[in-house]
Amino acid sequence: MHSLFWLLSLWTLCLFWPRLQGKLIRIPIQFQASFVASRRQYRASRSSLLVKYNVAGGQDITSRTSGATETLDNRLNLEYAGPISIGTPGQPFNMLFDTGSANLWVPSAECSAKNLACQHHHRYNSSASSTYVPDGRRFAIAYGTGSLSGRLAQDTVSIAQLVVRNQTFGIATHEPGSTFVDTNFAGIVGLGFRAIAEQRIKPLFENMCEQHLVDECMFSFYLKRNGSERMGGELLFGGVDKTKFSGSLTYVPLTYARYWQFQLDGIELGGTIINKNRQAIADTGTALLAAPPREYLIINSLLGGLPTSDKEHLLNCSEIDKLPEIVFIIGGQRFGLQPRDYVRTVTNDDGSTICLSGFTLIEAEFWILGDVFIGRYYTAFDVGHTRIGFAPAA
Ligand SMILES: *[C@@H]1O[C@H](CO)[C@@H](O)[C@H](O)[C@H]1NC(C)=O
Ligand SMILES: *[C@@H]1O[C@H](CO)[C@@H](O)[C@H](O)[C@H]1NC(C)=O
Ligand SMILES: *[C@@H]1O[C@H](CO)[C@@H](O)[C@H](O)[C@H]1NC(C)=O
Ligand SMILES: *[C@@H]1O[C@H](CO)[C@@H](O)[C@H](O)[C@H]1NC(C)=O
Q1: Number of helices followed by number of strands (H, E) in the chain
Q2: Nearest CA to ligand 2 atom 1
């Protein structure tokens, strides 16, 4: 009788265990302790962003490489990264989870000893994985200082308890310049849609949903904006964590399922309407806020920023708290950022501390809302319903 009871319990457990496990998958996101907020880094992240969206910004790298050598230093000094493992047995990698791109890539064990970016990180060794399947195709992704290139592979990718089978990804044998040398991540997990993926490779989350590894085909980001904390936040697959935001999420449909692009009803600065009916892209792979030319000019002039030859705007550090709030109106709701959020306090080339406007220029018809925004607003990336939701982060 007893053994039957236990057998039944065990059977019930086996039935429901995978579902319980599959409910919400939490990925701890680390905040990079060694993050350097320097003016150089700020410029580098602007260049990276422009290359990523394939637009010039008044100071794109090609036009600047002639005179200034420093722009070749195009490091991606991002603050947030989290763990995944690839292959059987699993090979661990710290990754940047980037909603502004759609490919997954890691450094390859076959990269040359001279390639510093590759040597500085964990490398994927296909010979050491029993689940590796060769693909045969080559791949390349353009970055500011050149192309990241290598070949494609297929293997099992594990993220916390989620095991995604047959994932195609890039293994890089060449990483350009200094871009990835001292990043806290080895590679990138693109969380954008297949339409923007190189060679239209099926993105990780698409496989995850097709393989029914999550109850709901969505993921959410909670990024803490406090550099002193080791735990930088959480990426959640399969749903949202209501304890991490206040009120309810305001959802808006995606205008295009390529990037995480949606309608901005309006932008206001200190009560002045700057523009209406714009598009915006939520991008966890950048720290910046990028504005189209018109808004960029109006906002920086209203902030009293002193323009520099580099298209930066200097602000007086002792007057930051007097600056107005910027409000993005999304789905009829107001999402504000305080000056402490949008002003970048950085170390200048001479070692002094300066304050720069966080509104940078992008020669495009859309805004880019990076970690500055997502850090303030818990963001739900709902793949299944092609919509995005925001709520004030706890
Ligand atoms: C890759 O793994 C194989 C099998 O474990 C091993 O023999 C080889 O040395 C590894 N290669 C590198 C570059 O680590
Ligand atoms: C992965 O690919 C193998 C071989 O093509 C196939 O047998 C298996 O069903 C696939 N698994 C999933 C989860 O798609
Ligand atoms: C950051 O975190 C530390 C310790 O957790 C806390 O003392 C500090 O007040 C926080 N700073 C901000 C700006 O939230
Ligand atoms: C910055 O603001 C402070 C306090 O309002 C003022 O004393 C100082 O002169 C300003 N600095 C510059 C460079 O304008």
Answers
A1: 8, 24
A2: 166
Q: What is the pTM of this model?
A: 0.87
176-235: per-residue pLDDT in tens?
777 777 677 889 999 999 999 999 999 999 999 999 999 899 999 998 765 444 567 889
Rounded Cα distance, 269 and 88, in Å:
52
Domain architecture of the chain: domains with CATH: 25-34+64-237 (2.40.70.10), 242-392 (2.40.70.10)
CA of 123 to the centre of ligand 1 (A): 11
Coil, strand, or helix at residue 95? strand
Nearest ligand to residue 315 Cα: 4
Residues with Cβ within 8 Å of 316's Cβ and at least 6 positions away in sequence, in order, are 304, 355
**Candidate of 315, 319, 323, 356 to mutate for ligand 4, largest count of ligand atoms within 8 Å of Cβ:** 319
Atom 3 (ligand 2) nearest CA: 166
Q: Using pLDDT thresholds of 50, 70 and 90, give the confidence band for residue 79.
A: low
Which ligand is the nearest neighbour of the Cα of 89?
1
